[in-house]
Design brief:
Largest sheet: 11 strands, antiparallel
Strand content: 15-25%
Mean pLDDT: 91
Shape: globular
Number of strands: 29
Radius of gyration: 32 Å
Distance between the termini: 69 Å
Number of helices: 34
Structural class: alpha/beta
Length: about 800
């Protein structure tokens, strides 16, 4: 960091003294937050053995002790500055089986996480070499002797001209400590600098005394906010695990970010969020390869395209070990492995919709019976499940196996070319984002059919571990973020939203559909150029992190990957924060991305659809909205588009922490609704009102085709005279149950609604009396039953009357 704007010779003429803040400026802590030192104290002091699993209580008691000590000092001495002995005088030693004699052990333990900041040390030594007076001014409960011992423990031989600890002087930097320093050291404040991380104490405090400040923030406001969300997600997804100790991973992220010049938001996202995740995964893949290295084995590693593209780039940029970028997808591998029709049926069963051209693209043939099948489908489009059911009667299994044999031969020729020494390879590590090992399993079948004895080992960022239990005995698979890191409930929530990560990590090329020797034949890439450019910028930031993190970690003495389980948990929290609790800037940056479905179709699925979520909430409630099938592909982002609280509720649901009896609907009254036919006849029906956990009122009005209803008159004023209308939706089905369970929810356009006796301001309405009604038009029904749902939030008192 360049803390002055003039050259060294000019600084030598005008600067009389340089003072440095100590904690989080000159010294960094290898923990997520400053109170991580208390968590480490618990681990090192022996209390973790005598009183296991109570670290949270220990940390909170330590924080409360300091708060009580400062409050008492303020009341008795007029200052909140205290010594460490004062702090521990309020600590409940007996609760943890300790005696006052253990105080020295607790004090020593609090020093263990500190590291010298090389940026600040460089500036410090530079100023000292130029003959300036240098020293430290710190707001701390450590006295000057203890602070000196800490500084020299972190940097043996360090010397200074002055050292001020606030507890020795009974005053902080925000009060009179700077004035004491100026007077005792006889320095010119206008020709002096102070460097610190605290805007109030270091920057404003220095300015108030005429000292020229230099701000060294721990993290920018945006990154600090993301860190707070990560901690919340960590505590939610990894309960019972220490949330403050990460072997310095967060400190390293701050340091890498601080050394990077201003770059576009996409680059910054890659640098501070994606880069740390993928770098930790890179270490995991390297460890998997090292575990397999034994005498007589020849291990190769292949990164599966397209999602493994960024992982391969990070691997290739950080080491000389050979690797291959292997373009194989689920579709190609399953077809090549088909010795029966079943693998193809399994593949098709997962396709949402398919037509004849897509089928021809996938299998290279279109038998007449299959063409006739599609011709009989509405608009020539069938569901994958329907096609899978019908296909055994439409194609001869021998035709499938013949196609598979050709595909298999071309795939193996490609593998022999792209994987170094494929013929001598005994073990092949397949690195990928995840999830169920479908490509690995298909390759196993292919290798067995061709008599290839290579063992296969999956190394996945995220693994669905229950789907990996049927691997061949000779093969293995392991997930970095496994079910031992987060629960299966959480894992499925992450997978539901992982399409965002896939689009960010994948290559700019279209998906493979065949091979011609060493050449990959790809599909047309339907993704827009702006999306490809955005992903490239994010990847550039991730690569920059991977390139710099190791050097910076070594310089500071951090080991973020020393404990694989801790690295995995924090990587899971970092990824989950991005996927589940994105901030507004990330929604704006990533919300326009489209998902390339990659099953022979050229269609793109939307990532975000906030209107879809709002309609689901109106029609079916929170739980149903949380379990919505794709699209939209980024369900959590769609919730976040409504509000951060909606996104957090979704995260709670996915973590199995959302009690249904709190957040689902309960009956709260009834309302009489008018139903008007086109011929003028009318009827009155009573419908139940429900109150949701979000404080909304929801009404559902079923009508049948036989009723020939043209208009619904809903007396909103009797539910709430003042309220916010969230929308009106319609679901169709052949029965009331079918309609109620349908995810195909259509919103009734606002312009089709009529407000009778209601004043509308935006989405809010006001009724002067109980007669105000919402008129909902009902058109011809395409199915037997339609359910119209209305959701409102009462503003003020809601009188729910039967």
């Amino acid at each position: 960091m360049n803390v002055a704007t003039v050259d060294a010779q000019r600084r030598a003429q005008i600067v009389s003294a340089w003072s440095f803040d100590v904690f989080d400026t000159f010294l960094m802590r290898a923990c997520t937050t400053p109170d991580g030192v208390f968590e480490r104290t618990y681990e090192l002091s022996g209390i973790s053995r005598t009183c296991p699993n109570v670290s949270a209580s220990f940390v909170q008691h330590r924080m409360q002790a300091e708060s009580r000590a400062r409050r008492t000092a303020k009341e008795t001495r007029g200052t909140s500055e205290v010594h460490i002995d004062d702090v521990y005088s309020f600590f409940p030693f007996r609760l943890f089986g300790l005696k006052r004699a253990h105080l020295r052990d607790l004090v020593d333990a609090e020093l263990e996480l500190c590291r010298v900041n090389p940026d600040m040390l460089r500036q410090y030594l530079d100023m000292k070499h130029l003959g300036h007076r240098v020293g430290f001014i710190s707001d701390t409960y450590w006295n000057s002797d203890q602070l000196a011992r800490l500084l020299r423990a972190c940097r043996p031989g360090l010397s200074w001209d002055f050292l001020y600890a606030s507890c020795d002087h009974g005053s902080s930097k925000s009060e009179t400590l700077f004035a004491t320093y100026l007077t005792e050291q006889n320095v010119d404040p206008a020709a002096s600098f102070h460097i610190g991380d605290n805007d109030r104490a270091d920057i404003k405090g220095a300015k108030r005394h005429g000292i020229r400040p230099r701000y060294y923030p721990q993290a920018g406001q945006q990154l600090a906010s993301r860190f707070q969300r990560e901690t919340a997600i960590f505590e939610l997804l990894c309960p019972g695990q220490p949330a403050r100790l990460d072997h310095g991973a967060r400190t390293l992220r701050r340091m890498v970010a601080a050394r990077s010049a201003e770059r576009p938001p996409a680059y910054h996202l890659g640098l501070t969020v994606l880069g740390p995740i993928m770098t930790a995964f890179d270490v995991f893949v390297a460890d998997r390869c090292a575990e397999l290295e034994e005498p007589g084995r020849r291990v190769a590693v292949g990164f599966l395209g397209r999602d493994g593209f960024l992982s391969h780039r990070i691997w290739h940029s950080g080491r000389d070990a050979a690797s291959a970028y292997v373009e194989i997808n689920r579709r190609v591998s399953l077809i090549a492995s088909a010795d029966t029709m079943q693998p193809l049926l399994d593949l098709l069963g997962k396709v949402l919709k398919i037509d004849a051209p897509t089928f021809r693209d996938m299998l290279k043939v279109l038998p007449s019976a299959v063409a006739d099948f599609f011709a009989q489908c509405p608009n020539g489009i069938a569901t994958g499940a329907a096609l899978a059911d019908a296909l055994p009667e439409l194609m001869d299994a021998r035709e499938i196996t013949k196609l598979a044999a050709g595909q298999r031969a071309r795939l193996l020729a490609y593998l022999r070319h792209v994987i170094p020494d494929f013929g001598r390879c005994t073990d092949l590590v397949l690195a990928d984002l995840g999830y169920s090992g479908s490509v690995q399993k298909a390759l196993r079948r292919i290798f067995d059919q061709e008599g290839i004895a290579i063992r296969l080992h999956g190394a996945y960022l995220i693994s669905l571990d229950d789907t990996l239990d049927d691997l061949a005995d000779c093969d293995t698979a392991k997930g970095f973020i496994s079910d031992l890191v987060v629960t299966p409930h959480v894992k499925r929530m992450l997978i539901r939203n992982v399409a965002l990560l896939e689009q960010i990590c994948c290559s700019a090329d279209g998906s493979v559909h065949d091979y011609d020797g060493a050449q990959v034949l790809r599909e047309i890439n339907p993704r827009p150029g702006v999306q490809i450019a955005l992903a490239s910028e994010i990847q550039a930031g991730a690569l920059a992190y991977a390139a710099n993190a190791g050097k910076i970690a070594a310089a500071i003495g951090l080991e973020p990957h020393a404990a694989p389980d801790i690295a995995a948990r924090w990587s899971a929290a970092t990824l989950a924060r991005l996927l589940l609790l994105p901030d507004d800037d990330e929604l704006a940056l990533l919300g326009e991305l489209k998902h390339d479905i990659n099953l022979g179709r050229h269609a793109l699925a939307p990532m975000l659809d906030t209107g879809f979520i709002r309609d689901q909430l109106t029609a079916q409630g929170l739980t149903a909205a949380c379990t919505s099938a794709a699209p939209p592909m980024w369900l959590a982002g769609s919730f976040a588009g409504l509000s951060p609280s909606h996104a957090y509720l979704y995260a709670l649901f996915g973590a199995n922490r959302l009690p249904a009896d709190v957040f689902e609907e309960t009956p709260c009254g009834a309302l009489q609704v008018g139903l008007f036919r086109a011929n003028g006849d009318a009827a009155v029906e009573t419908v139940t009102m429900f109150r949701t956990g979000l404080g909304e009122l929801r009404l559902r009005i079923p009508v049948s085709r036989a009723m020939a209803i043209a208009m619904i008159a809903l007396p909103l004023a009797k539910a709430a005279r003042d309220g916010q209308l969230h929308g009106v939706t319609m679901q169709l089905g052949d029965s009331v149950r079918d309609a109620a369970e349908s995810q195909d929810v259509a919103g009734v356009p606002a312009e089709r609604l009529t407000y009778a006796g209601l004043t509308l301001t935006g989405a809010s309405y006001h009724a002067t009396d109980d007669e105000g009604c919402l008129l909902i038009p009902v058109g011809p029904l395409a199915r037997e039953i339609a359910i119209y749902s209305v959701a409102i939030t009462p503003l003020g008192h809601a009188d729910h009357r039967d």
